[in-house]
Amino acid sequence: MSTYQFLIRRGLQGLLVIWGVITVVFLLRFMTPGSPVDFVAPLDASPELRAQIARNLGLDQPIYVQYAQYLGSLLQGDMGFSYIRGRPASGIIFLRLPATIELAVAATVVAIIFSIPLGVISATRRHEPADYAATGFSLVGISTPNFWLGIMLILLVSVGLGILPTSRRPIGLVPAMEMLIFQFETVGIQTWIRHMILPAITLGTYFTAMIVRLTRSGMLDQLGQPYVKAARAKGLPETLVTYKHALRNTMIPIITVLGLQLGTLIGGAVITEFVFNWPGLGTLIIDAINVRDWPIIQGALIVIGVGFVVINIVVDALYARLNPRVSLE
């Protein structure tokens, strides 16, 4: 099977998964208490006015009719109209999405920079102080809740030391005048980095700790393989054996996890965004839940689900491309 055939097959499977996500998200509105009418209608609204609002929202139709209309609207790129915000839901969601992607990518970069070197050092210096320090860090990182870490960083670094800002950055991929703006001047980049450091560390700490453990276990497995012993017997430098041969083979599962975790970071940035008042999908979803703004909630969850599917397809294709022993079948 060629790469194109593989991608076509995975794409069809991904469409089925996306259809399942859409269905589940649609049904959530009927499974949760409360009605959008309660937040749209005035407090003293008469039953007739409430019924009229329900008709305007399409809530008076049978569920299968609403489901068919919703699918038809999504196929046309229409995620519904937010009566709470008075704007189409798709426009609001896609203006917030870049900020979430920006934070997820920054957290991934932080994880890669710190986790892989720590994992290699931990594996090559097994049962030494460096190994114990790396494994201890990974244990603490995995056990630390993101919201607690974010609050502690704000109190210590921002409030206590006054080094870094505490909340959303004034520049970057942010909604402003219906456009995405980023200032590439030196001052702009410095401002962006200062605002990005604490949220990226908060979101990427768990990710970093997990990759450290994965790199360590993978390196220990590869360093015991016959090809490593043969390379050492030939007199190759230890640095070359470690980084060119052992680490290269270890990177294949790490890349897979990196891709899959990127999707997790996009969907799991809700708490971090809330702590740092980040203008992304996380804060948008929380605000929408508080007022039962279902077009926003459904649209945001569908976008996150589609992101997971796309990233999974890309990672699977990349994994098979990097490892010739893995068949696309």
UniProtKB/TrEMBL annotation:
* PROSITE patterns per the UniProt record, alphabetical: ABC_TM1
Q: Which UniProt keywords apply?
A: Cell membrane, Membrane, Transmembrane, Transmembrane helix, Transport
Membrane topology (UniProt): Multi-pass membrane protein
Localization? Cell membrane
Q: Which InterPro entries match?
A: BPD_transp_1_N, MetI-like, MetI-like_sf
Q: Name one GO biological process term.
A: transmembrane transport
Q: What are the ABC transmembrane type-1 domain coordinates in residue numbering?
A: 97-319
For this record, an example GO cellular component is: plasma membrane
| Chain ranges passing through the membrane | 12-31, 103-124, 145-164, 192-212, 254-276, 296-319
Q: Which PANTHER family match?
A: ABC TRANSPORTER PERMEASE PROTEIN, DIPEPTIDE TRANSPORT SYSTEM PERMEASE PROTEIN DPPB-RELATED
Family, according to the entry, reads as follows:
Belongs to the binding-protein-dependent transport system permease family.
The name of this protein is Peptide/nickel transport system permease protein
- What is the protein's species of origin? Halorubrum vacuolatum (Natronobacterium vacuolatum)
From the broadest rank down, the organism's phylogenetic lineage runs:
Archaea, Methanobacteriati, Methanobacteriota, Stenosarchaea group, Halobacteria
